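pls ignore typos typing on phone
1,3-dihydroxyacetonephosphate + seq
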Amino acid sequence: MKKKKIVIGNWKMNPETFKEAKELSEGIRKKMVGVKKTTAVVCPPHLYFMSLKPKNASTKLFYGLQNIAREAAGSFTGELSATMARNCGVTYTIIGHSERRALGETDDDVNKKVLLALKEGIKAVICVGESKVDEHAGHLTFIKNQIVTALKGVTTSDIGNVLIAYEPLSAIGAKNPITSYEIHQRNIFIKKVLCDLYGKAKAFDIPVLYGGSANAMNAKELVEGGEVDGLLVGRDSLKVDNFIAILKEMDSIS
Ligand code: 13P
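k done
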């Protein structure tokens, strides 16, 4: 059976006012009535999260975080723990985005965060992706190491809460994504790494998303051509109509 497509909006450090964030969140929620099959998640800045997430759980839009702490509890100024997140109704968190890795987050940090999120039953959206492609396939080894380290200690019973978001750095915030052919190749490679770790049946259940300059115009081609399970979207998750258009494109893939 085909998996439901999933689109995750990573708002990053946007928008600048709570008013805009509220309009964006409510605008998406209202227009979600036209979205039938696709799972939609938005990840606003932490500061806005609780005020945006509706109290009643009947909404079709999930709210997630962009990051959690690598420690379970204690004196860590400025951090938010996975337990706090779970207690506040967080169901998804992005972990290991390349913009956080650029700030110093390591594969080991990513692994600690993944284990803590999974312990709390939060879905871990693990970001991986190379900064450059080299002719000796060094980029594949790089991606493999990111995945293997991130999943160290993740059991087969917890792997159901893991999603892999493949985001090549060259395509993030860029003019164009990479081609769907390249996405397909990386997807096959990622699935092979996951098969080696968890066996075929489990591995094929782990959603693999693509991220990097995805928009309503290219969404369908990227997902169908790349045979991925959905998208992690930056810029185009900040405009109601663009985000909804991406969700509808996903709905149209049978
Ligand atoms: P853009 O969609 O703006 O390229 O950002 C991609 C991204 O980094 C999502 O996490």
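The chain has a mean pLDDT of 96. The first strand starts at residue 6 and ends at 10. more later
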